[in-house]
Structure formats: structure tokens, C-alpha cells
Amino acid sequence: MTPDSTGLFKERPALPKGGRLTAVQQIYQTVRDQIVSLDLPPGTVLQTRQIADQFGVSPTPVREALILLEEEGLIDVFPQSRTCVSFIDVQSAREAHFLRRSVEVEIARTLAIEISDHDVGVLRTAIDRQRTALEVGDLSAFLPADNRFHEMMYEMAGVGGLWDIIHARRAHLDRLRRLHLPTEGKAAKIIRDHNAILDAIAARIPNDAEAAVRAHLKDTVSATEEMRAVFPEYFR
């Protein structure tokens, strides 16, 4: 699905299989995904009536969805003036990165002790999906495959609920990741890093697994100033 000239959707997104979202949830998740993917870049003005028309709803659920996005720091609302996509908050990204790293090093250590051979195979397959996306140059598929690799590690460690908590805090970090991803060699390095993490886990060496996670997660935040120099319009 592609945005029109205003950056908003031409059609309603499909509902997920296995359940229905409320109108508020659907609008929130769709607009959030577009903000995080930078299809709606910082500074984009959001029109409540236009969004309502595109989703075929009244303005009320749109306003409720925008409140959720404002609480998450993804939009700025200027009363009686305009509502627009927020600029990337570097401090928020750093805090989310710190939280994610703290959790994932423990997950890696846990899995290095108790992972099953079956789950190792499942994670290998997840890395293969990332490699396939990279080979065809589909970065829009690569990032979700990257996220799914990590999410499965949370689930295998028995702390899947923590993924949702961190996901709710990492939108600004994910925008940095999306800016960084097209950098030459970045996606290939992610795959190498994932293989290194999984190799250490499969070898049942917790210290190596932790070190591999730390090495993997340091790049995006460390490249912040580089991204700011290339995309100054995305930062306040």
C-alpha cells in the first residue's frame, strides 16, 4: 500500500487475520506504521477529516487515535492550528535502545542455556527470510523480518510480553533504524550479526551470546550524528 501525494493512504489497510481491530486501533496502527517507516516523514501535517474520509469513519475515532500517537510522542498537536508528525527525539531513541539492550542481553544468555535444537532451526529460517529480502532489494520486507527474528527470541525465552512493552517505547529508535538501514552494507551486517548471535546461542556459550548482542545493537544509536547530518530535516 502506498501513500498518496499528501503522504496518507489511498485505501483502508486490511485487517489482520484472526481478529478485528476497532477503528481507533486500526487508524492508530496504520498511521504509526507509516510514521515509523518514514512514509509519513517528520513535519507532515495530518488532517483529521482527510484521515476519517480515507478510513470511512467519523472524525471521533481519528481524534482518539491521534491522542494515542501524541502520547507516544509521534505527533505534535498545536490546538487551533495543526497536527503534524513529530521530529525524531534522539533522547527517547537512546532510552529505548538502553532498555532493549538490557533485556536482549539477558534473553541471549537465557537462550544459550536452554534453547532447543528446534528453536535454533526456527531462528535460522528467520535469518534466511532476511537474506532473501536483502537479495531482492526489498528493504520494506527486511525490517519486519529483522524485528521478527528478535521477537521470536523474546518468545522462546518466555518473555514475549516484554516485546510489546519495548515496542511501545521504541518508535523514535525505529525511525533511526529506518534511516540507517539503506546505508551501504548495513543490512548485510545485520544478517552477519544475527548469525553471530545465533551461533553463540547454539554453541551454548552465554558470554559470547551477550557480547554478540551488544555488538549488534550498538550501531544505530552510534550513527545518530551521521544520520542527523544527512537528514537534518528529520531532527529538531
Q: What is shown here, in short?
A:
The chain is mainly alpha-helical and 236 residues long. It has helices spanning 23-36, 48-55, 59-71, 90-114, 117-135, 139-156, 160-167, 171-180, 186-202, 206-217, 219-222, 224-230; strands at residues 75-78, 82-85.
Structural account:
The two termini are 29 Å apart. The chain has a two-stranded antiparallel sheet. The chain contains twelve helices and two strands. It has helices spanning 23-36, 48-55, 59-71, 90-114, 117-135, 139-156, 160-167, 171-180, 186-202, 206-217, 219-222, 224-230, and strands at 75-78, 82-85. Helix 9 (186-202) runs antiparallel to helix 10. The chain has 236 residues and is mostly helical.
What key phrases describe this protein's structure?
single chain, 236 residues, mainly alpha, two-stranded antiparallel ribbon, 12 helices, 66% helix
In N-to-C order, the SSE pattern is HHHEEHHHHHHHHH
Oligomer: single chain
Please tell me what the overall shape is: globular
The share of residues in extended strands comes to: under 5%
The biggest beta sheet is recorded as:
2 strands, antiparallel
Secondary structure elements and pairings:
Blueprint: H1 23-36, H2 48-55, H3 59-71, E1 75-78, E2 82-85, H4 90-114, H5 117-135, H6 139-156, H7 160-167, H8 171-180, H9 186-202, H10 206-217, H11 219-222, H12 224-230
Antiparallel strand pairs: 1-2
Helix pairs in contact: 1-3, 2-3, 4-6, 4-8, 4-9, 4-10, 5-6, 5-9, 6-7, 9-10
